[in-house]
Amino acid sequence: MSRRCELTGIGPMTGHSVSHSNVKTKRRFLPSLKSVALHSEALGRSERLRISNAALRTLDFKGGLDAFIVKASDDKLSPKAQKLKRQIKAKQAETAAV
């Protein structure tokens, strides 16, 4: 399982640990990921995704999973999130037509 946020695409970054004597050693900065069950209003069910804590705060700000995922670009979403986006868009189009 990769250490990548399924909604924002945030992944590990590299940098240096710098000691008191200014010796630099390579290190990785890993994203703070959390496995959460997010409820979709359009689909009426919950979906389990592995997202960063920053993405979780953004979901609260944007108004939920449906509002965030419909506006998100496909290149940042994981394949699982892209499938969820297609399902949400289809359900929203279905309810708008009725």
What descriptors fit this protein?
98 residues; Ribosomal Protein L24e, Chain: T; two-stranded antiparallel sheet; 4 strands
What's this, in brief?
The chain has helices spanning 53-62, 65-71, 79-97, and strands spanning 13-18, 24-29, 33-40, 45-52.
Describe the structure.
This protein is elongated. It has 98 residues and is an alpha+beta fold. It has three helices and four strands, in the order ββββααα. The longest helix has 19 residues, at 79-97. β3 (33-40) and β4 (45-52) form a beta hairpin. The relative contact order is 0.19. 37% of the residues lie in helices and 29% in strands. It has helices at 53-62, 65-71, 79-97, and strands spanning 13-18, 24-29, 33-40, 45-52.
List the helices and strands and how they pair.
Blueprint: E1 13-18, E2 24-29, E3 33-40, E4 45-52, H1 53-62, H2 65-71, H3 79-97
Antiparallel strand pairs: 1-2, 3-4
Envelope shape: elongated
Total number of beta strands: 4
Radius of gyration: 17 Å
- Counted up, domains total 1
Round the mean pLDDT to the nearest integer and report it.
95
User: What is the overall number of helices?
Assistant: 3
> What is the fold-level CATH name, i.e. the topology?
Ribosomal Protein L24e, Chain: T
CATH architecture: Roll
Q: Which structural class matches the secondary elements?
A: alpha+beta
CATH homology-level superfamily: Ribosomal protein L28/L24
CATH class: Mainly Beta
Helix share, percent: 25-40%
Side-by-side strand order of the widest sheet = 1-2
Strand percentage: 25-35%
Topology as H/E string?
EEEEHHH
